[in-house]
Q: What sequence folds into this?
């Protein structure tokens, strides 16, 4: 699985929220970029006070697609994309919806985002195992089935961190947005190993 590097203020390279490619970024101050913001947002820029320049405003330009990302006070103002990698192909619809919801609240509440990711994992494993067992029981069943050690560790990290948030109220490392983002990467690895790869292998064997 290729790592997803989320957009981060003043970083030289990250996955562009427009094209999704990991690429070098050119940075500019907000001076003179009010008109660019107006092009994207229309009259709303006058409400927030953009008149050709705005204190705290910056722009990064992707070297791959050459599109701009508008930043305000070190946060992305435009485009309004999810700050997480997309769920892999094969993610069940119900689970995908929870994943997307977790991504939407990541910036505002990493704690809530982490708890939603635990729920997404629980529903994912129920879908894979075709049962209604608790998360711990399904993780145990997967481990006993002989899954790779790396996947076992990924499942345990996501389960333990999510449990801390949802049941004990402890935030621990998940008070940090970057740490919660790591949970999304782990989740995607689990989907790819348990759904995407087996499906692709089955399709390959059918065609050979």
A:
């Amino acid at each position: 699985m290729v790592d997803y590097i989320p957009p981060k203020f003043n970083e030289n390279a990250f996955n562009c929220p427009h094209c999704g490619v990991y690429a070098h970024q050119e940075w500019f101050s907000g001076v003179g970029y009010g008109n660019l913001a107006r092009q994207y947002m229309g009259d709303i820029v006058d409400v927030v006070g953009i008149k050709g320049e705005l204190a705290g405003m910056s722009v990064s330009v992707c070297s791959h697609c050459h599109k701009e990302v508008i930043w305000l006070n070190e946060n992305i103002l435009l485009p309004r994309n999810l700050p997480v990698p997309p769920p892999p192909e094969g993610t069940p619809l119900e689970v995908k919806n929870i994943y997307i919801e977790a991504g939407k609240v990541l910036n505002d509440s990493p704690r809530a985002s982490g708890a939603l990711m635990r729920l997404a994992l629980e529903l994912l494993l129920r879908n894979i195992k075709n049962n209604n067992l608790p998360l711990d029981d399904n993780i145990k069943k997967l481990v006993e089935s002989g899954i790779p050690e790396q996947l076992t560790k990924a499942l345990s990290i996501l389960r333990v961190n999510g449990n801390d948030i949802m049941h004990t109220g402890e935030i621990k490392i998940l008070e940090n947005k970057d740490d919660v983002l790591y949970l999304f990467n782990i989740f995607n690895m689990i989907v790819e190993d348990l759904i995407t790869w087996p499906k692709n292998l089955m399709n390959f064997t059918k065609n050979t």
